[in-house]
Write a structure and sequence with these properties.
mainly beta; Immunoglobulin-like; six-stranded antiparallel β-sheet; 1 helix
């Protein structure tokens, strides 16, 4: 009887080993990858923009209290004369309008692990004048180690 139980127990352990060996752990590159997900305009001129992210070592975002900007948006509007997208130029800074946002890191238990999810950013002002009806954003982010993500461009976003 003991031989019978031992035999089936051994078969069960071997089968469990094979099954667990077949299950692959999720792995991503340590450089963050982002993908455009959605844009939600609100009454007034604010909006939420959402991106999906993947990171191989879970170091997305900054600790609470840290004000380092890690998520960057560059604003482009459709020029009604040329019908082309133009970066809004700020003479004071001699550059186009690029705005940084603070992304808070997830719980510390994610450090060192592959993670993915969504990031939602509230944009307080989506355009420089209300006559602009079509905009785009160029987006990228940095992780805690300073790795820059891929750079993405949103599709044409129509505003009310």
């Amino acid at each position: 009887m003991k031989k019978f139980i031992f035999k089936y127990l051994l078969i069960l352990v071997i089968c469990s080993g094979f099954i667990s060996a077949c299950i692959k752990k999720t792995s991503y590159a340590t450089t963050p990858e982002i993908e455009y997900k959605a844009f939600y305009p609100y009454i007034g001129d604010s909006a939420d923009i959402q991106v999906k992210f993947k990171d191989g070592n879970g170091d997305i975002g900054v600790s609470k209290g840290d004000t380092t900007r890690t998520f960057w948006l560059t604003y482009y509007y459709k020029d009604s004369v040329t019908n082309k997208y133009v970066g809004y130029y700020r003479p004071l800074f001699n550059d186009t309008l690029k705005t940084g946002y603070v992304v808070n890191a997830p719980d510390d238990s994610y450090k060192g692990k592959a993670i993915s999810g969504d990031i939602s950013i509230r944009i307080p002002r989506t355009r420089h004048i209300t006559a602009v009806k079509s905009i785009k954003y160029v987006i990228y982010m940095f992780d805690e180690a300073g790795n820059k993500s891929n750079v993405i461009t949103t599709p044409e976003l129509n505003l009310p």
